[in-house]
């Protein structure tokens, strides 16, 4: 199903062609002056340069050609050469009805049969998730869902940090505390204990202690580096201990990500690519693209068009140890072998931009990925406090993600104190609403930009917030229940397989314009609905969840304006009541799809 702007553009393009101009100038967009019109075309300004005519004169010709077309309620030429357009109410209602009867509300997937790997999460094992892990997790989850809705087979990879210095620090600290454990005896040949000698809570104390000590004690840090090398070379005791640490860490990370409604198809770590590193490097050597620089093995990736310094990509340090670039390149080798992806998207801190540019260039130079494979770095900005300073705990430390979620849920509970619910129900719903507040507050910002976290604003039940959107959903649900509707329950299935329901099949929505002129609030709501496919297309093409947030905020606002202007439940005219039921059911479905794509769950009541 074509977007509404696509349909308008087709009509404009035909008019331009009929008037002797190139049809490419007939492109419509949503008006930036909604007080004047719904859509606009600016193509006459560009056409004027090619055809040496006044843009207003061209616009007047096009408008004259459109006159008499009942598709438009208005088409007028305005200085210096704009074409202002509004659609007839019947067209808006008809388009909405077509949406309701279409797969995915008329959105056409653009990449069916293609595969996308989304690398997000990036947590380190044996360390708790902190505030810095929030953005890649929820942005990556949303991007993955949007790409899947656009037709891709999607594979989300947690890509855990499990093979570097943090593990070496933990091994070193455990050896210092309990040297008698068999893992640290290089001569030990027996079976190792079945159970990990430390718990998750132990690890959460061990790692920061070891990290702090390593910054002050160079000898200790050197031992940790050696432990990493020994682990990567397969030292038996270290491998056994590492596997046990991995098991309890993955279980804890799964639980925490599940609580965020973030789910990965792959739980691979850096270690999974380790065996591929040396064969990959040998291939690069054979191709003659490596060289030695100050003892390190590197690949030059600088290009003539570079305006900034581009250092070579280091594959092996002077001591022969592999680093992150080697691991990321070997991971690409693994992904190409297993999935042949058409696209690989990395959702990580934007400060890693240089690293990934080096990796991408090296992978192409080495032929690791196909020429047509898209490699995309979606660098996310940071979360600051409401004053714009780095987000810290009161004592100046890095805030754990669990603590941040707890603070938001507590704030929502405060605002729900007067609700007539049991304590258990109130706590459950407050957690759903709190996570929505947190996610929406993040996702409504452009991924690449930093933003300030304001707990009072994010948890407000009014304005552009997650709770406001959820409250709109709950309000629609309540209206539909009062109107005797039950079929709508199936619309919130989180597999996004939304089903059509009787009101749409029986043509209730078309009755909106029957023997009556619709109100301004109805018109605004219909117009907002028509931008559903456009919003999804922008979000998919630009990997921009914030586009979806803008759409559902506008749609929610339009619905609430419509709700306050009309008494849906008590409307006596049967055909109008049915039309309104179908209209708000469509709003409910559109909101439900988008909230699913944002990874936000809807409570049954608030």
Structure description:
- 44% of the residues are buried.
- 50% of the residues lie in helices and 10% in strands.
- Among the domains are: 4-87, Arginyl tRNA synthetase N-terminal domain (Gyrase A, domain 2), CATH 3.30.1360.70; 165-259, no CATH class.
- The longest helix is centred in the middle third of the chain and has 24 residues, at 236-259.
- α6 packs across α8 and α20 (545-565) packs antiparallel against α21 (574-597).
- The chain is α/β, with parallel strands linked by helices and 606 residues long.
- A hairpin with a 3-residue loop joins β3 and β4.
- The chain has a four-stranded antiparallel sheet with strand order 1-2-4-3.
Strand order of the largest sheet: 1-2-4-3
Helix content: 40-55%
**C-alpha termini separation:** 35 Å
Largest sheet: 4 strands, antiparallel
What is the approximate shape? Answer: globular
Which structural class do you get from the secondary structure elements?
Answer: alpha/beta
Tell me the β content.
Answer: 5-15%
